Amino acid sequence: MIAYPNVPRSIGAVVSRRLATLVELQTVLGQDDLHDLLEIIVVDSHNERVATEPRN
Questions:
Q1: Keywords, A to Z (predicted)?
Q2: Total count of domains within the chain
Q3: Extended beta strands in 1-56, E state
């Protein structure tokens, strides 16, 4: 995978998932908000993975 060369991975993840814009992260939202949004991404990804796993 290619990384965003000019943007930290955490910010790139939130912006690419459309949970916040770069402007919002730069002006309105703080670091705690960024961490909360990253948590949402992690939990959603886990739940999607579990939901698509074959059941025995």
A1: Elongation factor, Protein biosynthesis
A2: 1
A3: none
